[in-house]
Amino acid sequence: MPDPTTVAARPSDLWLLWRQFLAQNKLFLRNPFSAFFSLAFPVMFLLLFGSLNGGGRIPELNNIRYIQFLTPGMLAFAVISTCYTGLVTGVAINRDEGLLKRVRGTPLPPWVYITSRIASAVFFSLVSAVVMVVAAVVLFHVEVIGRMLPAAAVTLLAGAACFCALGMAVAAVIPNGEAAPVIANFTFFPVAFVSDLFFPTAGAPAWVGTVGSIFPVKHFALALEDTFNPFVHGNGFQWGHLAVMALWLVVAVAVAVRFFRWEPKTDASGGGRRRRSGRTAAVAEADHTA
Amino acid sequence: MAAIQVQGLRKAYGEVEAVRGIDFQVAEGECFALLGPNGAGKTTTVEILEGYRDRDGGEVEVLGHDPRRGERSLRERVGIVLQAAGQFRELTVREVLDLFGGYYPSPRDTGEVIELVGLDDKAGARVKTLSGGQQRRLDLALGLVGDPDLLFLDEPTTGFDPSARRRSWELIESLRDLGKTILLTTHYMDEAQNLADRVAIITAGRIVASGTPGSLGGRDEGEAMVAFRLPPGAALTDLPARLPGRPATHADRVELATSEPTRALHVLTGWALERGEELDALTVTRPSLEDVYLRLTGAEELTHA
Question: Residue A271 has what pLDDT?
């Protein structure tokens, strides 16, 4: 029987989640790479493309200004860098280092740790989104459309949820931390160019549209871009795109839950010593049940 | 009540049997060492007790819990110092200890823990700026901050210089004096000898000997070795026949394994005095823990020892 005084003093899960969330935020801000890639990088793209092609217009989209199209695209880019790329690399590297294993040995509930990382990624997605919109409005006079603002916010959050789940799923299945940045970038950038993120694909060959439509990036980008297009009627909710994102989210969660590992695959002892290769598969097996 | 009970523990990774049926108990307040070469099954055993791995067979109880259920109430009473584990590198020493302390119902004071492991002047430093030895002390601090009843130390001083190791030993001894139960793995014999109340030697997944460091492998009861150099001009055959045991030449010395070292010395010194000669390099030794260890774990482990 547990000692009743011990139970009374146990910190609540919500309190633990809040503290861990703050700690993850601190870690994020103090790591120059993560801060740069998810906060500065997308804004840089906005400034670069916006300045190069400032006066351009898009005939396929009611002749709206290119920057009015690019801003929501870069919002999506910022969310994907922070949530997807950030979690894939961060989680895989932390697992290789044995940090996840260390956390797993404490009384911190695993779901609290995972949730705190996701919450932190979503938080910084929103921060970079706000920075981006302010920069776009101030520098390029991008129009923010009030009636579609709720749709924009919901789409942004839905995208963050979808790409956090995908990040955890990919982090769960990739072999090691060294491969993580490569895999994260190679699964994202080729898709990004057929997904209306940087430029519209309406005039491109049909296969570009087909390939893009399979992946969630294009649906996220289009749903967000519509909320910045003054010619779109109504409240701006694009349920079709949101449904595709939801489907990817469900699949990603299932993969992440099934395959998530707290320890590196090749090193059962955690001591940096590799033993006979015969144990690798068995260890991976053991980790799933842990 | 025993803090740890292990019976018939088995674990295989594919074809490789890492742990082949081991039994031991660790009493509350005891410091118990698993001593063995790399790959002997120490870490696998400890990680099963810590709840990181499932076992294939046998019974295991840690503070009254089955560790494979991974209960929070068990984790709250256990401190784990892994062989190697990542750090929150961008946090300061104080921040990371505050964070981890918050996971436990009744943590120790952060400042106190920092002082205990001797990181006072690094309290405000980012973890990534610490030296290897300092990070290892932080590992220990993180194992202690929850004020655990039971502490797992997996090779806590591997890679330390002698003075850092000495300081860690003092710290571990002070923890034992506080009544903590400690399960230690090590491949350093002096570490086991200095810290452990009891030692089990584990090799190839089996415990081959266990007992107090002083009695392990019968080293307090077994034969003593009397060794000396023969006086000039004397031969092995000149030695008195009354000598207990059979003398043999090793390099330039004569060695005599005997269960009666007192009588052997008496006969031997009497013989030398009668001849009016000195027995150079005369020693009486018991097998060291190292001798016992090497005998039990096999000579091929010599390089690790």
Answer: 39
Alpha helices in chain B (DSSP H): 42-50, 72-75, 93-101, 110-116, 132-144, 162-177, 189-195, 261-274, 289-297
Which of B11, B53, B80, B135 to mutate: most A Cβ within 10 Å?
B53
CB contact under 8 A, B90 and A281: no
> pLDDT value at position A198?
87
In terms of phi and psi (left: phi > 0; alpha: psi -120 to 50; beta: otherwise), the region of A2 is beta
pLDDT of residue A39: 80
For A:247-286, CB contacts with B below 8 A are 263, 268-273, 275-276, 278-283, 286
Which of A31, A108, A286 shows the shortest C-beta gap to B53? Answer: A286
- At A134, the amino acid letter reads V
pTM: 0.84
Least CB-CB distance to B16: which of A20, A31, A278? Answer: A278
Q: What are the beta bridge partners of residue B253?
A: B250
Q: Mean of the pLDDT values across residues A159-177?
A: 95
Average pLDDT value for chain B: 89
Label residue B233 left, alpha or beta by phi (over 0 means left) and psi (-120 to 50 means alpha).
left
CB B201 within 8 A of CB B208: yes
Distance from CA of B222 to the nearest CA of A (A): 36
A120 touches chain B (CB under 8 A): no
Q: Does A290 touch chain B (CB under 8 A)?
A: yes
**Is the CB of B82 less than 8 angstroms away from the CB of A272?**
no
Mean pLDDT of A130-145: 94
Tally of CA atoms within 13 A in the half-sphere of B281 that contains its CB = 11
Please tell me if residue B45 touches chain A, with a CB cutoff of 8 Å.
no
**Strand B224-229 with B253-258, pairing:** antiparallel
Instruction: Give pLDDT tens digits for B216-273.
Output: 867 677 778 889 998 888 888 888 888 888 888 887 888 888 888 889 999 999 999 9
Strands B181-186 and B31-35: parallel
| Joined tokens for residue A212 | 């893009």
The closest of A288, A242, A240, A233 to A265, measured between CA atoms, is: A288
Whether residues B13 and A283 touch (CB distance < 8 A) is answered with yes
Residue A7 banded pLDDT, cuts 50, 70, 90:
low
* pLDDT at residue A275, rounded to an integer: 37
ipTM of the complex: 0.84
- Which residues in chain B are closer than 8 Å to A108, comparing Cβ atoms? 103
